[in-house]
Amino acid sequence: MPHVERGMVVGLFGGSFNPPHPGHLLVAEIALRRLGLDQLWWLVTPGNPLKNQKELAPLAERLAACEALAGDPRIKVTAFEKTLGTSYTARTLEFIRSRNPHVHFIWIMGADNLAGFHRWQRWQKIATTFPIAVIDRPGSTLAYLSSKMARTFDFARIDEDDAGVLWQKRAPAWTFIHGPRSTLSSSALRAAANKS
């Protein structure tokens, strides 16, 4: 787990990153800027229970690719979930909170994950552990209106103009951040690689 200091504001950006691409980096850069983060942890998961594990590149390969892409020293690439022995976000967030009680965390996710967020194990627990920032992705802009998560926690949504103080809010609290979007996706990149 990356080193943090008391009072820091840290974004948690999890995923399989199979492979990581400039669209992931754009989400990270928007989160760093709009949320006023001191660090952003790029949590490379050992596996994703909702995705085909046969398509998953080895963890070491994905970690190296994330490190090569990240660039910004505030982005900390980690795969500590492997040591923790879980692929479930709810458990990971509970562990992070227990180890870092004096740090302000925000869960970061691309809007493309919002539509299926209610299929994640203990998704409501995730939403009540840390504030959530949803970053716009192509084709997913309306997800913040129609998704089950958005409807369930509509009362907890704050205006994106207040994204810089999201870390001060007690979960559940979330915002949807519009901005530049990349059309790149890991699944499209894998499909293109398989054709060549």
From TrEMBL:
Top-level taxon of origin: Bacteria
Pathway: Cofactor biosynthesis; NAD(+) biosynthesis; deamido-NAD(+) from nicotinate D-ribonucleotide: step 1/1
Signal peptide feature range: none
Key words, A-Z: ATP-binding, NAD, Nucleotide-binding, Nucleotidyltransferase, Pyridine nucleotide biosynthesis, Transferase
EC number: 2.7.7.18
Molecular function terms, GO-annotated: nicotinate-nucleotide adenylyltransferase activity
SUPFAM superfamilies the UniProt entry points to: Nucleotidylyl transferase (SSF52374)
Recorded catalytic activity of this chain's protein: nicotinate beta-D-ribonucleotide + ATP + H(+) = deamido-NAD(+) + diphosphate
Domain Cytidyltransferase-like per the UniProt entry, residue ranges: 12-191
InterPro entries on file: Cyt_trans-like, NadD/NMNAT, Rossmann-like_a/b/a_fold
Protein task: Catalyzes the reversible adenylation of nicotinate mononucleotide (NaMN) to nicotinic acid adenine dinucleotide (NaAD).
HAMAP family on file: NaMN_adenylyltr
Family: Belongs to the NadD family.
Descriptive protein name: Probable nicotinate-nucleotide adenylyltransferase
Naturally occurring in which organism (per UniProt): Rhizobium rhizophilum
Taxonomic lineage: Bacteria, Pseudomonadati, Pseudomonadota, Alphaproteobacteria, Hyphomicrobiales
Gene: nadD
